[in-house]
Design a protein that fits this description.
The complex is a heterodimer of chains A (284) and B (356). Chain A has 14 helices and no strands. Chain A is mainly alpha-helical and 284 residues long. The chains are: A mainly alpha (284), B alpha+beta (356).
Amino acid sequence: MYQSKWRIFTNHAILILGALFMIMPVWIAFASSTHTREFVFQNGLQFWPGEHFFENYGAILFDASATKGRVTALEMLFNSMVLGLGFAIGKVIISMMAAYAIVYFRFKLAVPLFWVVFSTLLLPLEVRIVPSYEVVASLGLLNTYTGLILPLIASATGTFFFRQFYRSVPDELLEAARLDGAGPIRFFIDILVPLSVTMIAAIFIIMFVVGWNQYLWPLLMTTDDQLYTIVIGIKQVYNSLYEGGQIPQFPKAFALTIMATIPPVLVVVVFQRMFVKGLVETEK
Amino acid sequence: MATVTLNQAEKTYANGYKAIHGINLEIQHGEFTVLVGPSGCGKSTLLRMIAGLESISDGEISIDDKVVNKVAPADRDIAMVFQNYALYPHMSNYNNMAYGLRNHGHSKSEIDSKVREAARILQLEDHLERKPSQLSGGQRQRVAMGRAIVRQPKVFLFDEPLSNLDAKLRVDMRLEIKNLQQRLGITSVYVTHDQVEAMTLADRLIVMNGGVAEQIGSPIDIYEKPETLFVAGFIGSPAMNFLPGKVSDDRTHVVVGDKVKLDLDHDVEAGRNVTVGIRPEHFRLCGDDAGPVSASVRMVESLGAETLVYLDFGIGNENVTLRVQGTHQFAKGTVLKLSITPDMIHLFDTETGKRI
């Protein structure tokens, strides 16, 4: 399609403006995180980076007192990573297997059961958070990684996506595999899983980011600082900004925020490549 | 090599639909059997029952005198080639062929030699490391056949393997399949709706309609002596002409319409209403004056090697097709004189459709 120069110019101008609009708050937070707290307190938010990058980020990463708790940002990043990975990997595995059962096995109530699973999409976590807490508490899993991850691991979204994907896999593949002597488990591992790589990458990205950004659930589940995720840590730091009559620690709070955004961004960037590559190469 | 026996095999689906109505069939060692019929006639279902992909509702299917009704597909010692190839898209062609052997626990060196041998036969040696998506349709179908060959099965099953290929490739692959089957001497069952494939490939042809085997026999037998109206109309292209007729009182003629009289030497009672079947290629075009049948031309289709002429026999709007060798130009309305020898006339009972 022919596009006039003027048109290209406006299209790009709109795109660039949109991108700036999205990126600007992050940039200001980053720039402000590299100044001393006195400087930020006196001069407000900063647009240009200062000279205290290593000092602020070092303190946040390795010094527990900088995060107003008993854990460093590094430990919180680790906790978030465990939650994010456990959440994403667990969801992918569980929903793949659930969808496999729904699509490939004929059992009574398969269809109603699927709709029961599907209808839970309508219920956000917050609706069942109290009973879930009760269950985890009575299992004695409060303040454990298991308690943090396990109750969230079933995924209606994931099951639904994998179900749709499996249904698009031609039946002849299953039949060919049956003739080739592959049982249900072989077929799943040898044929279905390799074919779903793209889908797995997509679900993994989404679920990792969702898991990483979980706030309410870890807040309820963890009373022990050692298990704080970075999202909780941010809240903690911002809560205590004005405590104790000191100059508020804005740069370090910003530094923590910036650090919390890096892992999800990396996951999206890395897996998106795989995702696109998979889309291009897969042919059914 | 193996025999396949079907004894009153039936298939009824869970919803009560009866797809196969009791089929009896004995396929000999090394025989190439073709199931042919229109869509929905149950031919694929029957093949899938032999493969074990569909359960058998009633009756028995045996391979080498062993009843396989309850035997899993993988243990029936059969191999199947699917219409859309059904290759594993993420595996190399080598692995596609090797997968079944691996599952059956063959040794690595054995698998390698078998796959390379199959690749040599099918001229796929240069493509083993590629994936199916990097091959053309014909090559993919060869990989699918390779996957069948490496297993050295007792029976080959083909489910419309050439339908996805273009016309030229279809002819090549048809010859290749025939050649391969004869060389390997493996009992084969082949499903198709294409009668050219059916006629050329089959040692024995089974014409199916509505879940019933209408006729079983050699392709030429079926062409020359179709047992029912359905078979007569299905085999042969262009299709056989069917004309309503009445046997004359002296039983020497059949009268079609009000003006056409055809000589008969069939043993049939006088005055009986019959359906007369005449293949388009069995009319003989006579000179201007001779010939017992005259009909005017409605339309002409020139195919180069032959010409199809659609004639008005004076029986309503029905066209009668005439097929003549070479190129002919007939103006619309030209009256042609035709003759036909009595042994080329097929008579069918109008009520039952059975051959008389």
